[in-house]
Input
Amino acid sequence: MKKRLTAFLLVICMFAAVFTACGSNQEENTAATGSSSAASADSQKAKGNEEGDNVLKTAASFAYPSLDVHKEYYGWYTSIYGLSEALFKFDESATAVDCLAEDAEADGTKWTITLKDGVTFSNGDPLTADVVIQNIQRLAEVNERFSYLGDFTWTAEDDLTITVDTGADVYPMLKNDLASPEAGMIDLDATKDFDKDPVCTGPFVITEFNPEGDVTVARNENYWGGDVKLDGAVFYYMQEDDPKLLAMQSGEIDCYNSVSSGALEVYEKEPDKYHVESVAGTRLQYYILNENRLDDSVRAAINLTVDKEAIAEYLKGTVSAATSPYPASTAYSNITIPAVDAEQAKKLLEDDGYTLGQDGIYEKDGNKLKLNICYYAARSLDTLAVLIQEQLKAIGIDSYLTVEEDPDSTYIATADFDLALYCMISDKCGDPQYFIDSTLADGAYYNVGGFKNDECQAMIEQLRVEVDPDKRAELANQIIQIAVDDNAFGYVGLFNHTTVMKPGVSGFAEKIPFDFYGVDANTVK
Amino acid sequence: MKKQIIKRIIELIIILIVLSFLTFLLMYLAPGDPAEKRLSSQGVAVTKEVLQAEQERMGLLRPFFVRYGEWFTGILRGDFGVSFKDDMPVSPKLVSGLKNTSILALASLILSLLVSVPLGILSAVKQNSILDHIVRILSFIGNALPNFLISVLLMYFFCIRLNLFPVVATGSVQGLCLPALSLAIPMAGRFTRQIRTETMEQLRQDYVTGLRVRGVREKDILIHNVFRNASGHIFTIVALQIGILMGGSVVIETIFRWPGIGKLVMDSINARDYPTIMGFVLIMGTIYVIINFLSDVLYHVLDPRV
Output
């Protein structure tokens, strides 16, 4: 028996030794701290570590392995951490306003961008037109989503003026695209390690970066925009809702966003302890109605039946009922939709020859009206599918649910659905064109329900070259209205950008509908 | 012995080749495009042109056998490739995840054995007593509670009510306590019941009656005979549990921010990060085979009759 015991313990010991030994090198990799910034930044970091009282502690639902602003979506997080800034930024109404640049003006295919005077990186180096152009060129090289920027001709007219020639086609979205966090500016010459320690212009500098883990930043003492109110901030990587709630209750964190409905109920019961801000964001839940399979009357009946307010209420404050795909604060969200009217929905079906069967389900030509509702189990779409199924059944439309793990390679690719649920960002840069191009234009990747309208397509072509923001908004309103009137889609809800803060905390991008802002120079605790 | 070792090494190689091929094939056939997942990871839609360019860059448009062959030759050179999720090397990710998971696994295993061995034996000895009933009920409850519930309850009790641990724990010893306890509770429930059953089985044997008749003290019978004879079975269930634990626990790792292999693999599956998944399967397969192999070899060395 002793021999068996010894054998067993030996196996355990070997097993432990192998992994402990393997892990020793990794320790150095994962707990890497940036080390390549200028001396001034190093001293700031040391100071940041010593100070603790005025350091904001928060939870981040995502964490990435790199701080390279231009790659992937890492720029969203360097922006949230207050490290990087783009030439423009979005305000509460999703309008691109000045940040590192004063303005950008278009004249046909030529844009003129004027930089602000006195903008410097955290090491004191100035931001010049040449540096901006080098940054844009790198962004186009390393990020496929921005590769088109490399097709434009960028010229530095002087230190603060850049002209951009967009070639044969007018490109009206340039200013908005340059407000994307991926277009944040890096001191390319001074940065030694783009993944762990980029030198940027933001109000904070990196103190400690754990890839796919916690991030600590300290005040940028050389911040070009003036005083930075916080000494620093810590972003704890916490994916789960319950630990965030408990950390908030225990006082270990001061604020966080993307608050769940369960946690929201807790916070709202104690308004003296927690301050909650909620604005409709840009993440849209919607459905596509298959025009190749569903009669006009059925599509109209569905849109008259689906009660978005009831769905939003059921989802307990995590979404706002949508009338258009865009947040109501934008100029391009003026859409008129018919009110929920079950009787009118039934009448439409009956006028089209549908009769109510004994089982309470409509039928036509001996065929029961039964829809295939496709969805994937993310972003509450599973709940939405069940609620829509119930609401439709109440007026006599039967349905069955088909869940797919990956919608893009299944029902979006094959168009094998009657009603398809989907969730995407509807507004990524304060402009309506991206969503319209993605879902309504002829041949668009997500225009899979057979929607086709010549008038609409002509307006989309016009939108692609229209520079004036007001006219763009008007065009977008007309385009979306056509799709809504055609009952091609149903825009159900926009996820709320909900932030909970301890009393005294503010300036944590709590009123901005985008997900990519966090701490800035005015954040206080 | 030498023959046995060579035979097992050949077996290991064949197992790993078949395993890697099947996993690669399943990944290839599974719906979902890593390029699309990567480009739209934040919910932003992509155009067909951008998607195709990314697929080309990631080498996804090449034939299946070319991709598998390239991956396999890389493995022979010790190169697990780069992650489809973020272009970072796969090897450091796997090593770090396995290291953290093995620490958590060992801690929880020790905790559960510390509880279940005495309770299981005591419960068997005091069969049908109040103590036995309490232990059985507790082991039922421990076994039935889902991991996420245990984790949140422990967190609430120890972090909020007693204020003994921070909610936002780090990878320190303090940060290890609650996740290890969360894993240990259901495991201890299972072990206690199995140890109780095995001990009762031994207590019913004739040799125990014989020892009692000869006047051997009950304590000595339990320690030197009953427990010793039951140990074989206990080792078997513990060894099986090690394999399960090494697969990681996504729920516990996520709730307690423990950067183990379970969470890494789940994130990789969601992102269709084939190189990381393949690396994980290969390493886990190797670990299983090597542990079995080493056990067999050691048993043979220590007891040539086995």
Observations:
- Chain B has a mean pLDDT of 87.
- Chain B touches chain A through 63 residues (CB under 8 Å).
- Chain B is about 75% helix and 0% strand.
- The longest helix of chain B spans residues 90-125.
